[in-house]
Amino acid sequence: MSHDLHRRLGRLAADMDGTDLMGLRARVERRSRQLRNRRAIAAAAAALAGLAVLLAGGAVLLPRPDRAAPPLPATSATTTAPSTAAPPSAAPSGTPSATGHAQAPGTLYYLTLSPGQPIRLVAYTGGTSQTTGFGTATSKDVYARPSPDGTRLVVNTSPDHDRIAPGDLVVVSPGGARHTIAHDVRWDGGLTAVWTPDGKAVIADGVRYDAATGAHAPASGSLPYVVYSPDGSVRAYTSDTPSAVRVEQAGNGPRTVSVTGLAECEHAGCPTSVQSVSDDGRYLALGDVNSDPSHVFRTAVVFDTLAGRRVELGHLEHVWFRAGGALVDSGAQLTLYDNDWKVLRTYPRPAGEDEKTRLFYAP
After folding, report:
1. How high is the pLDDT of residue 33?
2. Where are the annotated segments for Disordered (predicted)?
3. How far apart are CA 105 and CA 5, in angstroms?
4. What is the pLDDT, as a whole number, of residue 222?
5. pTM metric for this prediction
6. Of 77, 229, 250, 288, which has the most beta carbons under 10 Å away?
């Protein structure tokens, strides 16, 4: 551009008389240098302004010598669900929140019993787990149940499983020491042995046995699927009356509760295998009716004995009542409810359950 300007000025100067061409050339060159300097200054100023903007907007991304860079978030194969907890000033939310490492209140017992294999009882309580060995299961062992404190097992045995032959009632201590407290005891269906709430006695086929001495006395009837409420004040079991459950409550006398209104009674049979009962005797956790000798361990429905209808809780695996509410196992998670069936919290299920491993609960 400057060379072209020089040529034009040169031609113009040739046509002009009395013009100092050397002075004109010098002025042109000075003007050209001034323009170049201005452009350089302007470009430098623009660059500095852009750098300032970047530094101001990205300051949080630059490490400071006096402050360590924030750690990168850890990656995990486990996905944590978004928290649904309400802010402190808001009303409590009805949506439960699960905590990956929290455990449900009370104690969950996983009891593994398989002939010829070690008998193991894994107790999950207070955020920890503890495994206790009870020796090796014999070929005669049929069913076992832990005491409320998890320190002993009561085992039903049979000399012939195929013929459902009655067998011994045995109390087993940690390490495997066995103490037989009764012989010729039935174990079929709902007659498997159950501990009393204080852990001092066992009910089996309608007989109460002292767990230490074997001393026994009738316990009023065969008492199939007998259970006790958490505080021990209520006892419930399958009634001799078809499609009914017997509830015995201290101070109120026994009553027979019909469950014929349940939808299950219309096609398969009424659930009457009692799994648990609430302290006030109002609610029953019931399993499916069973005509074969195997024992029903799972809950199919929660029945409100006062309203005469089921409590809608979705899919159920187990329901255990406790003081102030219930703990419900859906198979995927555990949900803690209050007395009005409002969700208080959910918890992960510690482990799975199969035919060799049974799940029990102590509030």
Report:
1. 52
2. 70-101
3. 93
4. 85
5. 0.72
6. 229
Using the structure block, give the residue that is written with the tokens 């809608």.
Answer: 312
Q: What would the pLDDT profile of 123-143 be if each residue is shown by its tens digit? A: 999 889 999 999 999 999 999
Handedness of CA 9, 14, 15, 16 (dihedral sign): positive
Whether residue 72 has pLDDT greater than 90: no
Q: What is the pLDDT of residues 255-269, one digit of tens each?
A: 999 999 999 998 888
Mean pLDDT of 207-235: 95
